[in-house]
Amino acid sequence: MTLAAWWFFALPRVSLKEIALRKLVFKSVLTYLLCIAAACFGLAHAKDNNAFWKDEAIALSAMPLQGQQTYQLILSGGPFPYEKDGTVFGNRERLLPSQKRGFYLEYTVKTPGASNRGARRIVCGGPRTKPEACFYTADHYASFRKIVP
């Protein structure tokens, strides 16, 4: 990196064409080094973090009663108590397997005593009443556990 910086900045009196070429090479080298650093420190892995939920499962019977009720509502097609239920979940956290936008839908799991929707959700992927997989989060999308019926 130091050598690349010296090569770019230290050699005096060069043409504008040479300066443009040096800028391009310098940016390319810098980008390459940053990519290597990201891979070494695991930053690139955050995009495809499928291992996060594979081993983390929860039996439907082990879920809170409100979660079990929400799951049954999902399979029966509703009606749902909240306006946001059944809307697209964008998976911006990238904790669930990558899919096209619109694949995942989110549903609220009622939280006793909460004056709002609370933090608990079920996110399902696939057809509305026959999802391929559903995931439970008790911490508003910070973590997910695959629901095992």
UniProtKB/TrEMBL annotation:
<dbReference type="InterPro" id="IPR000026">
    <property type="entry name" value="N1-like"/>
</dbReference>
<keyword id="KW-0812">Transmembrane</keyword>
<keyword id="KW-0472">Membrane</keyword>
<keyword id="KW-0540">Nuclease</keyword>
<dbReference type="GO" id="GO:0004521">
    <property type="term" value="F:RNA endonuclease activity"/>
</dbReference>
<dbReference type="GO" id="GO:0003723">
    <property type="term" value="F:RNA binding"/>
</dbReference>
<protein>
    <submittedName>
        <fullName>Uncharacterized protein</fullName>
    </submittedName>
</protein>
<dbReference type="GO" id="GO:0016787">
    <property type="term" value="F:hydrolase activity"/>
</dbReference>
<keyword id="KW-1133">Transmembrane helix</keyword>
<dbReference type="Pfam" id="PF00545">
    <property type="entry name" value="Ribonuclease"/>
</dbReference>
<feature type="transmembrane region" description="Helical">
    <location>
        <begin position="26"/>
        <end position="44"/>
    </location>
</feature>
<keyword id="KW-0378">Hydrolase</keyword>
<dbReference type="InterPro" id="IPR016191">
    <property type="entry name" value="Ribonuclease/ribotoxin"/>
</dbReference>
